[in-house]
Specification:
8-stranded parallel β-barrel, binds 3-methyl-2-oxobutanoic acid, TIM Barrel, 14% strand
């Protein structure tokens, strides 16, 4: 394994060399360390932690203080992977706020930040990138907009949505993003975007033809069994194994 630290440039270069980018979420020290030991090159302290760790109904309740707490824990694993972190809901409404909060996440240990949106936040992205902080975009279904949108809807089914995705992706490319997460984008549109834009696309529920894939780690491992998105095929039923082990211990007393 190449011992060199993975940077945003490494992730960008993986598109050019045709290497699939495997990305997963890590919200704490042990998970981040395990993901890194397996060689996952991009680890995201996602605001999905609000749902799968903190028990909130959606990600709009996650605060900057909570993100910083989890970024600090993940960063203590000192991963070789690039450690990115989400700017939480309403933490990047103005350029000044976006820059201040991106710097807070970096001070906590993040090496890149992610935020949701395209044209609407291109000035914020430009400012973050100009400050030397690598930026990962997020288009398609935007979980932080779930309340306005009344649910988690697939994007790209109609031509107006397809065009909006292309314009948003272009805005992120021009603002200097090093990659874009595509969440719940129809597979043909995700594939077309992947062929068209010069930076990596990292899909989640967007079909196989993205430059990489990202999953919420508890969905992959089955540690949050009360809800699993339809597009995830868990590789482990960890919750059931935990129940069995806990029960066996209780009965052994
Ligand atoms: O918050 C998160 O975990 C994410 C991934 C689903 C991409 O944004």
């Amino acid at each position: 394994m190449n011992p060199e630290k993975i940077t945003a440039d490494t992730i960008r270069a993986m598109k050019a060399s045709g290497q699939k980018i495997a990305a997963l979420t890590g919200y704490d020290f042990p998970t981040t360390r395990l993901l890194d030991e397996v060689g996952i090159p991009l680890i995201l302290v996602g605001d999905s932690l609000g749902m799968v760790v903190l028990g909130y109904t959606d990600t709009t309740l996650v605060t900057m203080a909570e993100m910083e707490h989890h970024v600090r824990a993940a960063a203590r694993a000192k991963p070789r992977a690039l450690l990115a972190a989400d700017l939480p809901y309403q933490s990047y409404q103005t350029v000044d706020e976006a820059l201040k909060n991106a710097r807070r996440l970096v001070a906590a240990g993040a090496e890149a930040v992610k935020a949701e949106g395209g044209r609407a936040i291109h000035e914020q992205v430009r400012a973050i990138v100009s400050a030397g902080i690598p930026f990962l975009g997020h288009l398609g279904m935007l979980p932080q907009s779930v309340r306005e949108e009344g649910g988690y809807h697939i994007k790209g089914k109609v031509e107006a949505e397809r065009q909006a995705l292309f314009q948003d992706a272009q805005a992120l490319v021009e603002a200097g993003a090093f990659g874009i997460v595509l969440e719940l984008v129809t597979p043909p549109v995700a594939a077309e975007l992947t062929r068209t834009i010069p930076i990596p696309t990292i899909g989640i529920g967007s079909g196989p033809d993205c430059d990489g894939q990202i999953l919420v780690t508890p969905d992959l491992l089955g540690t949050f069994p009360w809800f699993t998105p339809k597009f995830v095929k868990p590789k482990l039923n960890a919750a059931e194994q935990m129940r069995t082990a806990i029960d066996a211990w209780k009965k052994s007393l």
